[in-house]
Amino acid sequence: MDARGPWPLRPVTMWAAVGVLSLAVGTWSVGRWLLDSRFTVYVPWPGERGISDTRYITLWVFQGLIMSAAIGLVGYVVRQCLVERTFTFDASLVVAYAASFWLEPLTNFSRPSLVLNAGLVRVSTWGPYIPGWYSQDAEQQTHAVVTSGPWGYAMTAVWPLTAAVVMGRTVLRRWPNLRGGRFVLAALGCSVLIDWTLEWIYILTGTVTFPGAEPVWLTPFAGHWYQFTTLRWIASPLWSLIPFLIRHRYLTAGPDSTILRGSAELPPRAVAVTRTLALVGVVAAVYLVFAANHVLYTRFGGPLPAGLPSFFVPVGRP
To answer: Which residues 6+ apart lie within 8 Å of 219 measured at CB?
Structure first.
C-alpha cells in the first residue's frame, strides 16, 4: 500500500489503531480483574501436592531466570536508547511483547487446554473479564504469575532477537544475497528451531504439560508428561518470525517499510509512539493466530499423559 494514500489507510496508522484497541481492551479487562474482590494469588509451599524439594527449587530457579532475562532485556534496550538517544525499534518491540500478556486466556477460550505445576506462583484468570469471554470452568482457571505476566511476555522478545543472531551468523553469512521467499523460509526454519526449543524447555522443567491429540510419530516422548505435541505449536513460530521479518526490513530497507510505511511523514516526536503502537497491534494479531490454533487443537484434545505426577494441577482448578 502506498504511504502517500489517505492517512487513515496507511499501514502504520492502521496497525497503530489495532495496537490502541488491544491496549484498551487489555487495560479494561485486567483492570477490572485487579479491582475485583475475587482476585487471588496462590503461593506454593514445599511438598504441596507431592512436589519434591528438588522440583520445588528447580521451579523457583526457573521463574527467577525468566525474571532475570526480562530485567536483562529491559536493561539492554534502555542502554540502547541512551546510546542512540532515541526510543529504538528493539525498545518498541519489547513493549509490544509485554503488552500482549493479557491475551493469554484466549488459548483457553473454549475449554481449559493445559496443566500447570503446583510449584508455580499462580493467579486466578482474568479471562472472564475479557469482553465476549466464553469458556468452561472459567472462574476456576489460573495462570502462572511469572510466565504469564508482562515481564514473562517481555522476555519473549528475546526470540526474534535470537532469530536475528542465528540468521546473521549462519544463514546470511553463507548466503549474503538471500532474498524473497527463500529468505522467509530460512527465517521460518530458524524461528521453528528457536521457538520449539524454548517451548520444550518450559515443558522439560516441569512448568506445564499438555494433553495429546495427534499421531504418535508427531509427538516426541508421546504418552509422557514431557511430551511435545507439535501440532499444538504449529503457529507458535510466527511469534518470532513476523516480528523478526519486520525488524529485518526496518534495519535494511529503512524505518518506512512494511507495517511502518507512512511513518516518514509523521512529526518526529510521534514516530516512536506510533511505531510502538503498530508493533503492539502486530504482536497482538500474531498471538490471536496462535490462540486460534490452540483452541482448534483443544477441540480434538485427547487424554492427559499417563502417569501424570500429582504436582500437576489442571488449569480448571485453583
So the answer is: 212, 227, 228, 229, 230
Nine cell digits for residue 171: 544463514
Q: What is the pLDDT along the chain (318 residues), one digit of tens a residue?
A: 444 445 566 899 999 999 999 999 999 999 999 888 667 888 988 888 888 899 899 999 999 999 999 999 999 999 999 999 999 999 999 999 999 999 999 988 877 778 888 889 998 889 889 998 877 666 668 889 999 999 999 999 999 999 999 998 888 888 988 889 999 999 999 999 999 999 988 888 888 888 877 778 888 888 888 888 888 888 999 999 999 999 999 999 998 999 999 988 888 889 999 999 999 999 999 999 999 988 888 777 677 777 788 888 766 554
User: In the structure grid, which three cell numbers stand for residue 266, read together?
Assistant: 509523521
For residue 63 the three cell numbers come to 521463574
Helix (H) or strand (E) holding 314: strand 312-314
What are the grid coordinates assigned to 104, written together?
493469554
pTM beyond 0.85: yes
DSSP type of residue 100: T
Residue 155 in 3-state DSSP?
helix
* Residue 122 backbone dihedrals phi, psi, to 5 degrees: -125, 155
SS3 123: strand
Alpha-carbon separation of residue 143 from 79, 125, 251 (angstroms): 32, 6, 36
